[in-house]
Amino acid sequence: MTAKPAPKTAPSKRKADAAVATSKSIDNQIDAFLASGGEIQKIPNGKSGQVYGAPRPGRPAAK
Q1: CB 40 within 8 A of CB 34
Q2: Alpha-carbon distance 16 to 53, whole Å?
Q3: Is this model's pTM higher than 0.70 or not?
Q4: pLDDT, average across residues 17-23
Q5: Which portions of the sequence form the region Disordered (predicted)?
Q6: Which of 7, 14, 31, 63 has a Cα-to-Cα distance from 54 of 20 to 30 A?
Q7: CA atoms of 51 and 44, how far apart (whole Å)
Q8: Mean pLDDT confidence for 14-40
Q9: Rounded distance, CA 15 to CA 47, Å?
Q10: What is the C-alpha to C-alpha distance for residues 60 and 14, in angstroms, rounded to an integer?
Q11: Angle at 21 between CA 31 and CA 48, to 5 degrees
Q12: HSE, side-chain direction, 13 A CA sphere, residue 34
């Protein structure tokens, strides 16, 4: 009898850090931004930050 080779498996992926670490990181970034003189703007609901302009030139359509 020959031994069966072990099944190949993908290496396990590292688990994402808890959301608390992300929130703490964002809080630190906000504090640094405000300390450097930055200002947070209040944008009204329904207002978009999207700037509309002329369309960018693209490739001609394929024939």
Answers
A1: yes
A2: 39
A3: no
A4: 72
A5: 1-22, 40-63
A6: 63
A7: 16
A8: 87
A9: 37
A10: 44
A11: 60
A12: 8
